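PROTEIN–LIGAND DATA SHEET

This sheet pairs a single protein chain with one bound small molecule, nicotinamide-adenine-dinucleotide, given as SMILES. Inputs appear in the order they were entered. The predicted three-dimensional arrangement of chain and ligand is reported afterwards as a token string under its own label.
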Amino acid sequence: MKTLNRRNFLKKAAITTAAGTLGAAKIHALARPAADEPRRIGPNDNIQLALIGAGIQGQGDTRTAVQVPGVKLVAVADCYQGRLDHSKEMWGKDIFTTRHYEELLARPDIDAVIVATPDHWHKQASVDAMKAGKDVYCEKPMIHLYSDGPAMIEAARATGRIIQVGSQRVSSTVYAKAKQLLAEGAIGQLNLVNARWDRNSSMGAWNYTVPLDASEETCDWPRFLGTAPKIPFNPEHFFQWRKWKAYGSGVAGDLFVHLFSGTHFITGAKGPTRAVASGALRYWKDGRDAPDVMLGIFDYAEGFNLSLRVNFVDGGEESEGLVFTGSEGTMEIAGNSVSVSRSPHPKGPGQTVGTYTEAMQQQLESKYSQQYPPEHPLGVPPMQYDKYVAEPGYSDSYDHFNNFFSSVRSRRPVVEDAVFGFRAAGAALLSNLSYEKDAVVHWDPVAMKVV
Ligand SMILES: NC(=O)c1ccc[n+]([C@@H]2O[C@H](COP(=O)([O-])OP(=O)(O)OC[C@H]3O[C@@H](n4cnc5c(N)ncnc54)[C@H](O)[C@@H]3O)[C@@H](O)[C@H]2O)c1
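PREDICTION REPORTED AS:
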């Protein structure tokens, strides 16, 4: 377990390559022959990192990533000038910034990139980066379209690059403890998982602030749109993209995906085989096309059902958690803790005798007490309760980046590779599919295909 120790990330990056020259020349790596062999990183070398998509999560990810010893941010790509300028304010004026991520990928001194763009750019930016010889930390949900999954898995295989997907909790010590408890039989055989992520505030419902200078000069609108339908510049779409499925993946891709990653990591399950979802746009009727309430039910071949809920519709507090129900108790993950309540079934089934004659009641009670002598003085088994809490200040995001950068150095597998990421996001997106088709949908979690 590692507690965050904030390093002075404002220390100026000692970049020797001339950022200005590259920027002026407008070199696009993918318009040129493939990048040379990736740089070999010696044990004492820094891992040189670049960020693609310097918004809310990209900045947060980078702040965490550069706290891992031996990691240095050298370049940032984004479509909005204000975020490039703020990157220099945060990480020093010497970092290289560009609106075209291909210019980062062309640089041989960059080893790894964080892809924290909107979802509809995850596949293209990750595949381009791997083809240019970079290791990739790609934010969740890994995919926006089902066709993204095989393309990303194949790019990782063909290039031999590392890709870690960013559902951070997968590296959490709390989840590791939950996995261990389940494997040890703390709640018996798993039958049901109930999970929720309710975000009942305007910010929780994705109404992020649009900067006052948003314009076609400060925002590279065609680049933001990418493969999305071409529409005139729209600052809400640019800065609040999650509200439209052309760029985002709805509450399923935004939040269900974390609950799937957690469920899959803890249970070892590959994914659901059958899904049905319901939902609606109830409260935030502000032009968005993604529902603000969604409920999903999923069947697992491993022998349990999963029920998920997200709602954005009241003004209360955010509430998130998973409850695993087994044959002998429940295990709950809430915040930075996991707790187990053990309540195995008593051997005796109990009986309903009060409606019979007194003589019959006496006979039945006498027979029952011979067959099932009291197991416990009070007649009911005592509830056993156990709780594990991560230490104060614990950051699972740090551990997730630490896992990624260790793999970048060792070339050993990461904890959340493209197959894991596709299985989690593919399962999450079944909810959108079921909702849109108004039908039960099926998924082959081994082959990772909608059936
Ligand atoms: N792991 C988590 O807990 C977590 C939390 C929040 C967000 N995320 C994920 O992170 C990603 C980013 O979310 P966000 O909230 O930071 O969004 P954001 O809108 O704040 O940031 C996205 C940034 O990407 C830039 N961008 C868009 N297209 C680009 C392109 N082609 N090249 C370079 N930059 C481009 C935009 O200009 C913007 O600055 C999303 O995929 C989201 O699902 C993950």
